[in-house]
Design goal:
It comes from Zunongwangia endophytica. By secondary structure, this protein is an alpha+beta fold. The protein contains 7 helices and 11 strands. The longest helix is centred in the middle third of the chain and has 22 residues.
Length: about 250
Amino acid sequence: MRKDVWLFFFAVSIFALQSCKFNPETPETKVDGREIPIDSTVSADQEIENFIAPFKKHLNETLDNPLAYNPSVLSKGEKGMNTGIGNLMADIVIEQSNPVFENRTGNSIDFILLNYGGIRAELNKGDITTRDAYNMMPFENQIVIAELSGKKVKELLSYLENGKSAHPVSGIKIKMDKDYHITEASVNGKPINEAQNYFVATSDYLQQGGDSMNFFKDPINLYNIDYKLRNAIIDYFEKIDTIAAKQDDRFIKE
């Protein structure tokens, strides 16, 4: 915003605040209010409709422009401890954010943990658009990397045991028995070491304790790479031709 415009609005705001100051000589005024429902009985204002029409057209063209092709439906409703769409989202986070993290810190992300409930829509077969990315991730969540102790990672594994849900992961391999007890867990082919620290990428919502992921709170270090999860998804779709995602053995119950 130009400086002169900003100063104008600032002056108007000061004037309005001054005008609102209490004056004991000002007579009291009774104000009545009523609720006006906004529903189908309220007709559109054609002048406003005409004004926003070109903006609406441009927005829809941008949202519906094909970015990639999806050969089969991807839904989080698949049975098991991992889903194709969850694997896709976790893999996107590590592929898109790790180069940024490496450039800024010299470190690499060890693994990813997102939440099952964070996937808000399936991906249909066919062309995938920016609108699909917004439907899949409608929130303004940022990607953050939490440096966790090995002990905190063990708490993370306990959370997964208790949750019994297909939370999206990448970079970590987990096996459970029939009672959901974790029998194996490894990162980079090595068992979790309580004496080692791990760089775990997630969303800022989860890092702050969302979905009761309290093990993310108070990490050794926290890195915000200024990258929204949804933007990472869009960037990934823009650079590929065909989506390749499926269930695999990264998180299984034997």
